[in-house]
């Protein structure tokens, strides 16, 4: 690991969340945003969470993307322990299709914000895009890459037939 930390930390409650959270990593990679990923669980590894979240800002991270499923306390607990912006991604759970994850993340008490995204892949992609948009406020090159990414997305839709199948 290099001494200069990545801008974005992607954390997740379990290895099983990677199928979802890899979309955040892929999107950040496509935009040239440096990121690190790690498994941290408020439930299963509370001390690792404490150590990570307490040290995240000093380590050089600027934004944290936290994905978890079920009783998804990871994003909120992370937000409680760091002044960095935290974006929460509700991972789709088997039992309740991610409704549990969403509700566990979204309804934070006033004072400890978590920017909550959609359930699943869309949320993971959008968390990465939001992180990039925040970082782009102070980085003109990244702002240009983000503009290009959005233009490419528009072109992809525009090139497809406008009539429904
Ligand atoms: N919600 C949390 C937390 C947490 O919030 O600290 N730690 C693990 N988990 C979630 O448990 C689910 C099942 O995990 P396993 O697949 O490992 O049993 C995962 O979606 C994970 O995010």
From TrEMBL:
Keyword entries, A-Z: Isomerase, Lyase, Purine biosynthesis
Pathway(s) of this molecule: Purine metabolism; IMP biosynthesis via de novo pathway; 5-amino-1-(5-phospho-D-ribosyl)imidazole-4-carboxylate from 5-amino-1-(5-phospho-D-ribosyl)imidazole (N5-CAIR route): step 2/2
A single MF term (Gene Ontology): lyase activity
Binding positions for substrate per the UniProt entry: 14, 17, 44
Gene3D superfamilies referenced in this protein's UniProt entry, alphabetically: 3.40.50.1970
GO BP annotations, alphabetical order: 'de novo' IMP biosynthetic process
Superkingdom in the source lineage: Bacteria
Annotated InterPro entries: PurE_ClassI, PurE_dom, PurE_prokaryotes
Catalytic activity: 5-carboxyamino-1-(5-phospho-D-ribosyl)imidazole + H(+) = 5-amino-1-(5-phospho-D-ribosyl)imidazole-4-carboxylate
Entry's EC annotation: 5.4.99.18
Domain PurE, chain residue ranges per copy: 6-157
PANTHER family: PHOSPHORIBOSYLAMINOIMIDAZOLE CARBOXYLASE, PHOSPHORIBOSYLAMINOIMIDAZOLE CARBOXYLASE CATALYTIC SUBUNIT
Job of this protein: Catalyzes the conversion of N5-carboxyaminoimidazole ribonucleotide (N5-CAIR) to 4-carboxy-5-aminoimidazole ribonucleotide (CAIR).
NCBIfam families the UniProt entry points to: purE
Family indicated by similarity: Belongs to the AIR carboxylase family. Class I subfamily.
Protein name: N5-carboxyaminoimidazole ribonucleotide mutase
